[in-house]
């Protein structure tokens, strides 16, 4: 698994974006050419994703390329593999996000939450090493720019309901169902799926 990095130096590496069709709608990846994902999500609005990137690494120019472009082959292949049932494929993709020490650590911890085994915000805070920091853990989810690659959708409210999700509860519910169905052995017996409250 590739970790979230904390580099604050903007490099000259070109930043590109591509949008591919998924069962949950258009999914856009913003990444360094041949490198790390800076932002991603279920939208075709590249500017809205770029706005999520920390100012110290936010690209000024983003070249839009077709989803078959070699420069973004790794992230695109991982998204396609995920939707084809290889839920571990996303872990091989580097992600670059910048924040303070707790949030950096929280994003790395989030990448270790297994598909089909969602955790509550309380459990997530415990995994981050700060059991009392439930709101800070929730904040790490809310500020995550690299959706799917850093799987904030795998965190639920303490009562088992979905909670929020930048791309809508329907997408979050779909992702959790896909992961539960693809890896039933990894799903805790007590978890029968999220409760949708809107």
From TrEMBL:
It catalyses: a 4-O-methyl-thymidine in DNA + L-cysteinyl-[protein] = a thymidine in DNA + S-methyl-L-cysteinyl-[protein]; a 6-O-methyl-2'-deoxyguanosine in DNA + L-cysteinyl-[protein] = S-methyl-L-cysteinyl-[protein] + a 2'-deoxyguanosine in DNA. This is Methylated-DNA:protein-cysteine methyltransferase. InterPro entries: MethylDNA_cys_MeTrfase_AS, MethylDNA_cys_MeTrfase_DNA-bd, MethylDNA_cys_MeTrfase_DNAb, WH-like_DNA-bd_sf. GO terms for molecular function: methyltransferase activity. One of its GO terms (biological process) is methylation. Keywords: DNA damage, DNA repair, Methyltransferase, Transferase. Pfam families: DNA_binding_1 (PF01035). The lineage of its organism: Bacteria, Bacillati, Actinomycetota, Actinomycetes, Micrococcales. SUPFAM superfamilies: Methylated DNA-protein cysteine methyltransferase, C-terminal domain. PROSITE patterns: MGMT. Signal peptide: none annotated. The keyword Flavoprotein does not apply. Residues 101-180 form the Methylated-DNA-[protein]-cysteine S-methyltransferase DNA binding domain.
């Amino acid at each position: 698994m590739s970790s979230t990095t904390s580099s604050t130096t903007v490099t000259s590496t070109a930043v590109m974006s591509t949008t591919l069709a998924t069962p949950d709608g258009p999914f856009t990846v913003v990444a360094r050419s041949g490198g790390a994902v800076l932002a991603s999500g279920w939208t075709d609005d590249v500017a809205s994703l770029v706005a999520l990137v920390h100012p110290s690494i936010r690209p000024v120019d983003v070249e839009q390329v077709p989803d078959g472009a070699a420069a973004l082959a790794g992230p695109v292949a991982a998204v396609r593999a995920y939707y084809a049932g290889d839920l571990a494929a996303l872990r091989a993709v580097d992600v670059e996000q910048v924040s303070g020490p707790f949030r950096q650590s929280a994003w790395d911890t989030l990448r270790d939450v297994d598909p089909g085994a969602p955790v509550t915000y309380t459990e997530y805070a415990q995994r981050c090493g700060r059991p009392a920091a439930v709101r800070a853990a929730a904040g790490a989810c809310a500020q995550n720019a690299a959706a799917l690659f850093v799987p904030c959708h795998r965190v639920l409210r303490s009562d088992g309901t979905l909670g929020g999700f930048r791309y809508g509860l329907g997408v979050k519910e779909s992702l959790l169902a896909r992961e539960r169905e693809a890896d039933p052995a990894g799903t805790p017996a007590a978890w029968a799926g999220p409760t949708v409250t809107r």
